[in-house]
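Why predict the complex rather than its parts? Because the way molecules touch one another can change local conformation, and only a joint prediction can capture that. The input here totals 461 residues.
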Amino acid sequence: MHLFWHRRDPRTRDNAGLAAATRNERVVPVLPYETDLLGTMGSRQRALYLRHVKALQRRYRELGSDLVVRSGPPSEVLPELADEYDAETVFYNDHYRAARRNRERRAERALAQAGVETDSRTDLLLVDPERLEPSHPNHSQFHNDWEDVPKRPPNDEVSADALAEVSDRKTVPEPDADIDLPEAGYEAARERLDSFLEEGIASYNDTRDDLARAAEAPTAAVSRMSPYISTGAIGIREVWGAATDAYNQARGGERRNVGKYRYELSWREQNYHLLYYNPDLPVSNYKSFPHEIAWRNDEEALEAWKRGETGYPLVDAGMRQLNTEGYIHNRPRQVVASFLTKHLLVDWRAGANYFRKQLLDHDYASNFGNWQWIASTGTDSVDVRIFDPVSQASKYDDDGTFVREYVPELRDVPASKIVDWPTLSNGERERLAPEYPHPIVDRNNGYERAQRVFEEALGKR
Ligand SMILES: Cc1cc2nc3c(=O)[nH]c(=O)nc-3n(C[C@H](O)[C@H](O)[C@H](O)COP(=O)(O)OP(=O)(O)OC[C@H]3O[C@@H](n4cnc5c(N)ncnc54)[C@H](O)[C@@H]3O)c2cc1C
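Output of the joint prediction:
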């Protein structure tokens, strides 16, 4: 008998560790339920993850087995369960965040002392970071190396006769969230992927930044697979395999569109690679600066940003999307992060930690890696990158559809005035939308101040 230790992989299909465990022995699937580890997840994501776990338990029961849930740290729970089921080996999937790897090492030591073997597999990523050089000068270099490594196909669903006939009455709690959650579980994840393959992937490159389309048909412009990928409800090989099939079938311009989707998945892989080789990515600047960055500790500005009340329509629409849906489209995600760290000069860690709490798709690697990139403390080769929130609105939401969807105070304001809101006079703003705030920072002063502060930190002034 073997045990399979479920972690951020609540699925029976395309699960590399589970597939390996069932190859020559019957398997008991187990889940050590750790309240303190789950406490590091935001409450929304935790609620979604626990619903996936319930769906997983139902699936095991349909297959004539069960998910054995025990509360406590894996280093205690796993040796006890190995003893209870007389297991030879505990299988699991590798993780890349330092805290999780430390937990893994503790569990391995405790199991070795109990005479139980362990076997871990690459599952979370298409390419294990150790197969690549520890650092790359830029993303295209990373992508070239990463692209050359062959990718494994998805694993089939585990078969009923490979599972032990166990039954367990314990389960995980099912907390409520403060927002509507998407449907949980593998089936829901696959349905969303199928609808994107049907209606979105063939035009992905052309329309992924079209915010009007994103507001009107959310899963046609982009996939919105991130809440499912980041909680492990669907395997990354399955997503990659489906995109690759679509790529092989596509012709002409469609091929470029589908190719872009596959390319985007490589950003996720690069962020994991970065986290693996730089475990303090979530807390320390990746880049070193000769002088400290003079962040402003402006609580009031930070709170206005969190509420979506900065007087910058695209920033506020993005933040309100985050607050009401637990998701934010990639374009406004970049704009709100740049606005906080550049125009408001608030330390990226404050923004990244707010995202960690609010996002359904929170992922340590992608969140902190992207925040650092946007804050110009990460891997971006440009010294100081500053997104102008007005020109971003004019380029990606020129008819104001996205803003009007999330900022009701501006629903009756003409599109051109929404785009130019931060540059209008106070009198004009009060006449057009008296309920909506004036900008909390001047567009040009904010830009110039950020430029100066970063150049000083870089020793260029
Ligand atoms: C400040 C900031 C914070 C972010 N935090 C997260 C996070 O916590 N979790 C997260 O999954 N993504 C994060 N991203 C990346 C990106 O915004 C989201 O992956 C994307 O918006 C998710 O929507 P989607 O699934 O519709 O994306 P699609 O456009 O459909 O892309 C498909 C998939 O590719 C991957 N992907 C695409 N772009 C990126 C990227 N830049 N970095 C990493 N993966 C990418 C994701 O897995 C995504 O689901 C962040 C980006 C920024 C700028």
